[in-house]
């Protein structure tokens, strides 16, 4: 069985949410409080470093935000991050340092650790993306089951109930998601794992592995 705890998946030194995340055994337990967390963190950010263009919106002065991007409250955009043309930050988005939020990307109720790239046509909702993880073009998190029942995380024969109707994915640090892949509700991917393009992924995927297709997961060499 895979270790699914917060500290096994994520290096908490690479996000403003580190202290908040420490209190949770599993990272998806943190999704409920992201909005309140952002408002608390934002109120304490140094005014000399962050612009505050709208209530509940904080943007580091070194960040680049295209005039056509939408920043919905509450959100924090970290230093050296680029928010490109047509990005739609719906709200409840904590975006770290040196991230890319690209063309036509939509973020909602997420934590993006430092160095995360969502550069092209991605939807990321009710999810946590670890340090320097990368979503290939067109890859998305599916955060609601088709039958609208509560999401569970499956790890082999083990089933962990999350109690949440909306939960997309947790990506460990340095995860690479191939283009046009779908991460189904309750997907958890261990650190340093690569997912092939055009994959449909569900459940827990071990760290340091390559996900080729369902049932075909091999160790990275």
User: What's the order of the H and E elements?
Assistant: HHHEEEEEEEEEEEEEEEEEEEEEEEE
Q: Approximately how much beta-strand content do the residues carry?
A: 35-45%
- Low-pLDDT stretches are none
Classified in CATH, the superfamily is: Hexapeptide repeat proteins
Distance from first to last alpha carbon: 21 Å
> Total number of β-strand segments?
24
What form results from the Cα inertia axes?
globular
CATH topology: UDP N-Acetylglucosamine Acyltransferase, domain 1
Mean pLDDT: 97
- What is the domain total for the residues? 1
What is the number of helical segments per DSSP (H or I, 4+ residues)?
A: 3
Provide a descriptive summary of the structure in words.
The structure is a single chain. Helix content is 9%, strand content 40%. The protein has helices at 6-9, 18-21, 34-44, and strands spanning 50-54, 57-60, 64-65, 70-71, 75-77, 82-83, 88-95, 100-103, 106-112, 117-120, 123-129, 134-135, 140-141, 151-155, 158-164, 169-171, 176-177, 182-183, 187-189, 194-195, 200-201, 204-205, 209-213, 216-219. The longest helix has 11 residues, at 34-44. The strands form five sheets. Strands 1, 2, 4, 5, 7, 9, 11, 16, 19 and 22 form a ten-stranded mixed sheet that branches. It has a five-stranded mixed sheet with strand order 12-17-20-23-24, with no helix packed on it. The chain has one domain: UDP N-Acetylglucosamine Acyltransferase, domain 1, CATH 2.160.10.10. This is Mannose-1-phosphate guanyltransferase C-terminal domain-containing protein.
């Amino acid at each position: 069985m895979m270790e699914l705890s917060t500290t096994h998946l994520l290096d908490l030194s690479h996000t403003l949410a580190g202290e908040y995340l420490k209190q949770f055994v599993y990272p998806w337990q943190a999704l409920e409080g992201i909005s309140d967390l952002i408002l608390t963190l934002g109120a304490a950010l140094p005014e000399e470093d962050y612009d505050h263009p709208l209530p509940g919106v904080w943007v580091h002065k070194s960040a680049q935000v295209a005039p056509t991007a939408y920043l919905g409250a509450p959100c924090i955009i970290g230093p050296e991050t680029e928010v490109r043309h047509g990005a739609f930050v719906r709200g409840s988005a904590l975006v770290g340092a040196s991230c890319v939020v690209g063309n036509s990307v939509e973020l909602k109720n997420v934590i993006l650790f430092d160095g995360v790239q969502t550069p092209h046509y991605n939807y990321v909702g009710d999810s946590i993306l670890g340090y320097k993880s990368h979503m290939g073009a067109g890859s998305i998190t599916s955060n609601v089951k088709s039958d609208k029942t509560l999401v569970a995380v499956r790890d082999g024969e083990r089933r962990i109930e999350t109690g949440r109707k909306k939960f997309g994915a947790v990506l460990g640090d340095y995860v690479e998601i191939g283009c046009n892949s779908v991460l189904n509700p309750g997907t958890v991917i261990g650190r340093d794992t690569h997912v092939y393009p055009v994959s449909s992924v569900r459940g827990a995927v071990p760290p340091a592995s390559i996900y080729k297709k369902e049932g075909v997961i091999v160790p990275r060499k």
